[in-house]
Design goal:
Blueprint lengths: L3 E5 L7 H11 L3 E5 L5 E7 L2 E8 L2 E2 L5 E4 L9 H13 L4 E2 L2 H8 L1 H10 L7 E4 L4 H9 L2 E5 L9 E3 L2 H11 L4 E5 L6 E8 L2 E9 L14 E4 L4 H13 L4 E9 L2 E8 L5 H7 L3 H26 L1
Helix pairs in contact: 1-9, 5-6
Length: 308
């Protein structure tokens, strides 16, 4: 029986990642693209008893063997309702990759750092900056630091905090939104992105920031080249993905004087730069993983029925 997959993502015809995922999932089953704005939850007590149904694209989401989550928050969909709809699909028993909770948690850089540290994984010392007055205290605790928004992506709002002007900037920013400071790992401007799917690192690239820049994000013009991930890097990246509850992730890692350190873990990582640099398609790796998970789930249910 052919697998049926739902890809929940924004209805953007120019979304390259969604196009790649549709193509890859189509190679291992049937795929239907679902607009997050079409998710609707019906729940509670009715004449038929307790009801929990999630409608996706106007029909019961349980028609899918699994769903893959893309960009859930769009201009045409209420963010909270879209997230509730995706969570309810999980409650209905449909496997989701990645699950909503871990994917959202990974967007929180402070929470990610706390989970990694609690698991004994190497991550630079960091401190939250709840208000402008805490900026000086946080920097004294951390030392040479990089300031970041707790919620952010593509390197936006990231800067070195090594002078009076930057400390004042941090204080101003902390008064407007949640920020943290993370210990700077020399030399800066160079890191490695490891793309993890399941328990395997599928690809690794070295990212080099533009001259005079700190941020090594491809969206900011950084150079990406293929790299060979050391065994320890692979083990750290896979374990970081596991402890955060993710099925696939982009793990950003640096190699400092004290060894490797995990900077961030991305729950919905872009993979265009990786494909350009390595010619390896991460959408295909995700599709293979999801299809394997569905096959394993079917065999397990079949075994339970035979044993009962």
């Amino acid at each position: 029986m052919e697998h049926r997959f739902g890809l929940i993502t924004a209805p953007d015809a120019n979304d390259w990642h969604a196009q790649r995922l549709v193509s890859a999932l189509s190679a291992v089953g049937q795929v239907e693209r679902i607009d997050p704005a079409s998710l609707r939850v019906v729940c509670g007590r009715s004449q038929q008893g307790d009801v929990l149904v999630t409608l996706a694209g106007g029909a019961d989401a349980r028609r899918f063997d699994a769903v893959v989550l893309g960009r859930l928050v769009t201009g045409g969909a209420d963010a909270d309702l879209a997230l509730d709809g995706a969570r309810a699909i999980e409650l209905c028993g449909v496997p989701s990759f990645n699950r909503v909770g871990p994917m959202l948690a990974a967007q929180d850089k402070l929470w990610t750092a706390a989970v990694l540290a609690r698991a004994g994984l190497p991550t630079p010392l960091c401190s939250s900056v709840p208000c402008p007055e805490d900026a000086v205290v946080a920097l004294a605790e951390v030392g040479a630091a990089v300031a970041k928004p707790v919620f952010g992506s593509l390197g936006e709002g990231v800067f070195r905090c090594d002078g009076a002007r930057e400390r004042s900037r941090l204080a101003r920013m902390a008064g407007r939104s949640a920020h943290l400071v993370q210990r700077f790992v020399a030399p800066g401007g160079v890191d490695y992105r490891l793309f993890v799917v399941g328990d395997k690192v599928e690809a690794c690239i070295r990212r080099e920031a533009r001259a005079g820049q700190l941020r090594s994000n491809a969206a900011l013009g950084a150079r990406a080249v293929p790299a060979v991930a050391r065994r320890l890097w692979r083990e750290l990246a896979v374990e970081a993905t596991r402890v955060l509850g993710l099925s696939f992730a982009g793990v950003d890692l640096v190699e400092g004087d004290s060894g490797p350190a995990i900077l961030e873990v991305n729950g919905f990582p872009g993979f265009r730069a990786i494909q350009r640099a390595t010619a390896r398609d991460m959408a295909e790796a995700i599709a293979r993983f999801v299809a394997h998970a569905v096959r394993w789930s079917r065999r397990s249910r079949r075994g339970e029925r035979l044993g009962s």
